Amino acid sequence: MKKIMIINGPNLNNLGKREPEIYGSDTLCDIIEYTKKETACLGAEISAFQTNCEGEICDLLYQARDEGYFGVVINAGAYSHYSIAIRDAISSVELPCIEVHLSNIHAREEFRHHSVISAVCKGMICGFGKMVYPLGVRVLCEM
Asked: Looking at the annotation, which residues are catalytic?
């Protein structure tokens, strides 16, 4: 059984209330439950975390490595666009990471078009709402 960690960054704890026209009406708990249901057939063990703190995301990445996780699905939120610390942590843990975003970051404000973590992730899935999470888990399970 592959252990997969899902890491959620800043403001994702406010899903369902925060700009539902962009992010949808589901809460983060709803999305994690949906992901577990949609990927149950894959036999993966999923652990999900959320933090608004950059350093805690780095700590979670190291925890994933140290605890033998197979890979990480990460929605670093706004940190995706400027956190060299998270980029370096992803690079150093040497685990396959799939970057996900609920919205299509390329169709939004210019500053969201570039992700500094993309270069050290296996790939990015964005713009499909809550479906990005089970898609990320599926990609990891099929690697």
From this structure: 23, 101
Q: What is the pTM of this model?
A: 0.95
Cα pseudo-dihedral 73, 84, 116, 119, rounded to 10 = -70
For residue 112, the model assigns a pLDDT of 78
Query: For 43, which DSSP code?
Result: T
List, in sequence order, the alpha helices (H) in the chain.
Answer: 20-23, 28-39, 54-66, 84-93, 132-141
| Interval 109-129: pLDDT, tens | 787 788 999 999 999 999 999
Contact 16, 27 (CB under 8 A): yes
The letter for the amino acid at 10 is P
- Helix pair 84-93, 54-66: axis angle to 10 deg: 0
Q: 3-class SS at 27?
A: coil
